[in-house]
Amino acid sequence: MKFFVDSADLSEVREAVSWGLADGVTTNPSLLAKTGRPYAEVLREICAAIDGPVSAEVVATEAAAMCEEGQKLAQIHPNVVVKCPLTIDGLKATKALSARGIRVNVTLVFSPLQGLAAAKCGATYVSPFVGRLDDLGHDGFAMVEQLVRILRNYAYPSQVLVASLRSPNHVLRAAETGAQVATVPFNVMRQMLEHPLTAIGLERFLADWHKTKQKI
Predict the structure, then answer these.
(1) Residue at 216 is within a domain
(2) For residue 188, what are the contacts with CB-CB under 8 A and spacing of at least 6?
(3) Catalytic annotation on 2?
(4) How many structural domains are present in the chain?
(5) Tens digit of pLDDT for each residue in 71-87?
(6) I need a labelling partner for 173 at 20 to 30 A (CA). Which of 1, 27, 38, 209 fits?
């Protein structure tokens, strides 16, 4: 499974890259707005920090304007993947952009049939949001399992990019579904690596070693 860092914070991206766990980055208008800096400038810096896809979302709501914004975003850096919402206009834009050889991440997917529609329109990535479904009392991962199975049934090349992950358990369940990508907030990525038994074990090993008064 690939891990994408769900962040527009350059320091978080660089740190995750240094761990060897970051295969890409996903951003959205909310994350980029928090930086207080120009959109294109932040994207260029993130793209330079990672050798992998960086999702950048359009903000227009009509297909023609989405296509125009998508082409501008794609010109910022070869790593950019244009992010379009799962709307009828978003699907139109996805089809048009993918026909031009521009990779598209279709976001805000909440049902398997929405994901199938995105794949049929040429999406490189299809992003189901599990956390938001869970908030409404639905099983977000049951939906992801259905989507993964449907796309495999028909050999669509689209990759399932599980989004709205809020805990290490969410990441674990995403991996169990067979989804190709999980986009993980930086704090959750750090939590994935921590375990009290690891810390206790290391402390004991080091205590025993220091008693020997040796050096390596």
Answers:
(1) no
(2) 165, 166, 167, 168, 170, 171
(3) no
(4) 1
(5) 999 999 999 999 999 99
(6) 27
